[in-house]
Design brief:
Helices cover about 40% and strands about 20% of the residues. The strands form 2 sheets. It has a 7-stranded antiparallel beta sheet with strand order 1-2-3-4-5-7-6, covered by helices on one side. Strands 8-9-10 form a 3-stranded antiparallel beta sheet. By secondary structure, the protein is an alpha+beta fold. The radius of gyration is 24 Å and the shape is globular. The protein contains 9 helices and 10 strands. The protein starts with about 20 loop residues before the first strand and ends with a helix. The chain folds into 2 domains: about 80 residues, 2-Layer Sandwich (Phosphorylase Kinase, domain 1), CATH 3.30.200.20; about 190 residues, Transferase(Phosphotransferase), domain 1, CATH 1.10.510.10.
Length: about 325
């Protein structure tokens, strides 16, 4: 007995593009009779990203194709649209398009940041970024994560953290005009898939993650704010060493990264301790939040300041001791 294929009907209240798929003479796709796709910027487990022109205003923007349950993606996109932070590109639009030739597609439109990613910056600087600059970058990203992880639901006002889920050198960009740092390319589809599985009461499974940068619990579908802390820690270690992230993880596991006799990375002991706590394999052993990581970094600054003051005072103390014995 054959089975009858049932065509899914769309609820009239669901957003959708009011036009069919449109292409230009050059074959480039136009979304919502407005966003002209120019070139692909990147592709990964979280989706495909394009540079596009907003033909209404003439400026450039970023369009990301995201996969997953469109209702959940729409809900997560709405949460992202509420984000207002100087380190997060502004969200401009959310589009769902239907076509007889393909499944429904979801598009997120975002502000375009003209600049270089940390990966490009690392390559231009000879493969590594100095420790002090890396610590500055880490502090700025932690400030953004603290904002994200302490978000509240717009309706219930209950804490509803927004997780990035895909922090890596390619997803942190330094704007050309003023060297301002932005965190880009949120793992929207992964966030939506997590929500879907949790609502269904089953163990979630995420396809979108970056090997090496994503912690073990994320590969198993369970994410917490400390998951972003891990990814940031691995990102900074890659910038410092210039090595592949999987090699960095191997060196950490073999206790070779910070080894006093010829380790791949020589940093002060308190900085080493911070990196180890950020990149612990078990999330229970990891620094739990951006707030705690920022507090640890402030302690590093205080320690450094105290040492500098001590070094400045040593000549003064020495001169005083010399004068005392000379005259008395």
């Amino acid at each position: 007995m054959g089975t009858k294929k049932i065509k899914k009907r769309r609820n009239p209240s669901e957003p959708r593009s009011n036009n069919k798929q449109v292409t230009t003479r050059q074959g480039r796709r136009v979304l919502k009779q407005r966003y002209l796709l120019q070139k692909e910027l990147g592709k990964g487990g979280m989706g495909q990203t394009f540079l596009a022109q907003d033909t209404h205003f003439g400026d450039m923007c970023v369009v990301k194709i995201v996969t997953g349950d469109y209702k959940l993606i729409q809900r997560e996109a709405r949460r992202l649209c509420y984000l207002k932070h100087e380190g997060i590109p502004a969200y401009r639009d959310f589009i769902i398009e239907s076509s007889a030739r393909r499944d429904d597609e979801s598009f997120l439109v975002q502000e375009y940041i003209r600049g270089k990613t940390l990966k490009e910056t690392m390559e231009e600087s000879g493969g590594k970024i100095p420790l002090q600059r890396c610590l500055q970058i880490m502090r700025q990203v932690l400030e953004i994560l603290h904002y994200l992880h302490t978000r509240k639901d717009q309706e219930s006002q209950e804490t509803a953290p927004v997780l990035h889920l895909d922090i890596k050198p390619e997803n942190v960009i330094i704007r050309d005009s003023d060297q301002h740092l932005f965190l880009i390319d949120f793992g929207l589809s992964a966030q939506a898939n997590i929500s879907l599985f949790i609502e269904q009461g089953i163990t979630p499974s995420i396809q979108g993650y970056s090997p090496g940068y994503s912690p073990y619990e994320q590969t198993q579908g369970r994410v917490v704010p400390a998951s972003d802390i891990y990814a940031l820690g691995m990102t900074i270690l890659v910038l410092l060493t210039g090595r592949d992230v999987r090699e960095v993880r191997l060196f950490l596991d073999q206790n070779r990264l910070f080894h006093p006799s010829g380790g791949a990375l020589q940093v002060p002991s308190d900085v080493e301790k911070l990196f180890r706590e950020m990149t612990a394999l078990r999330d229970g052993d990891r620094i739990p939040s951006a707030k705690d990581a920022i507090a640890a970094m402030k302690q590093l600054r205080r320690t450094g300041s105290w040492k500098r003051k001590l070094l400045w005072l040593l000549p003064v103390v020495g001169a005083g001791i010399y004068a005392y014995f000379k005259w008395f």
